[in-house]
Amino acid sequence: MLWSDPENEPPKELRDAQDMLRRLGLLLALASVLIMIVIGLR
């Protein structure tokens, strides 16, 4: 790492991708819980 390198801050694209993955994971978790409830009600 050079002294001229910026702080340990990921680029904006990487941060956006991480946010999207986090939202996708949350959505998948909620969907799986809903599916389990529906299966349990049958």
TrEMBL record:
Q: Which InterPro entries match?
A: MmpB-like
Q: Which parts pass through the membrane?
A: 20-41
Q: Name one Pfam family in it.
A: MmpB
Q: What is the name of the protein in this document?
A: Uncharacterized protein
Q: Keywords assigned by UniProt?
A: Membrane, Transmembrane, Transmembrane helix
